[in-house]
Sequence to fold (454 residues):
Amino acid sequence: MRCLVASLPGLLLAAALPAIASPGIPGKAPLLIEDVTVLDLERDTRERGRDVLIVDGRIARIARQIEAPDGARVIDAEGHFLLPGLAEMHAHIPGADNPDFRDRVLFLYLAAGVTTARGMLGEASHLALRDDAASYQLLSPRIYTSGPSLNGRSVDGAARAVSMVTAQHEAGYDFVKLHPGLSRAEYDAMATTADKLRIPFAGHVSLDVGLDRALAASQASIDHLDGYLQALVPPGTTYPDAANGFFGARLAALADPARIPKLAQATAAAGVWNVPTQTLIENVALPVSPDTLAARPEMKFMPAATVDSWRRSKASFLAGSDYDEDLAKRFVDLRRQLILALHEAGAGLLLGSDAPQVFNVPGFAAHRELAALVDAGLTPREALLTATVNPAAFFGARNTFGAVREGLEADLLLLTADPTADIGNIAKIEAVIARGRWLSREFIDETLEGLARP
Fold:
């Protein structure tokens, strides 16, 4: 198998799109949700018949009966389920050069219940965007953003790594994003500087760095399970450099599954989180027809030219002389084993889909990622933890979001069915509440209708 992701056109989409046609951004009036079942995902409990009062964007009170304050919007939620909004921990946010598409992407996240997004390829405009989202001048999830990535092209020595990290810290970015191509010396200089400045670093594991060093450096998160396939190959095994392409997919034939538990335990001991982006991997690697992927209902929210390019690239990939269906399936299965082993070892997992890329539509892809985690062996509740409680813990923000609890910001998801019983129920959205703003099903559908292609 070869590295498909780098060759797919339009991965971060620069097509000009019309502005969102919506009925207006909802206001922030007091909100009383009556007679709802509150899901406590961490404790695995259901509190039935609860009223939840939201004032000034925060959960003010949870009780059996609450009198509605003057001017409050009252929602009868009998038979519905309330849980924290989701966090997309490997999101891509378009830049200032395409504001219409940027706003579209941010709304698509919200429409699917994603109320927090960690932008994994930032730019200067994202700092102001983060502030606008926080003050709700923009219809958007809460944003955490990196700066421009450190990679084999942007970094040409240890001194450059130091200067980039220092500049991004001074600019106010939330973390440093790593892409492949860093030398060991560059990585070490980056890590030393980032630790000194107390700015996290996250992303890929460069080949010259390797998984052991990334764990020893306490990299905040490893994304895509990068570096793990190489670490599964027994020491002393030789293979061509080309086998490292697409996250080591071709190394699946050499990988020893018996090494998985030790790697999972080492990851847990290091306190390093993982963002598997499993749905991205499965979209690319598995022998699924490109027409089948392109026919997913959410594709209507992407430019036709982009979906067509994804279809052509996938068709070419499957027809390539180096594509091995059995090896691709083994690669995906090894990753599923890794995900489950990391979870069982107590190594933190975070939900991320790498949208909008390779048949992953923002927001909708988060639902598919949850299903992929369940396919790997997590229960629906455990999968939901990767998108709620775990991100809040990762950011040190458990007093801000990630649960339905008094005092927290009201980033919530109201569903018509219990997602802990069936992860597919995560798509049965009656409303999204973004820091206290009520986005009804009617509002979401009307806005989506304005975004859809005919």
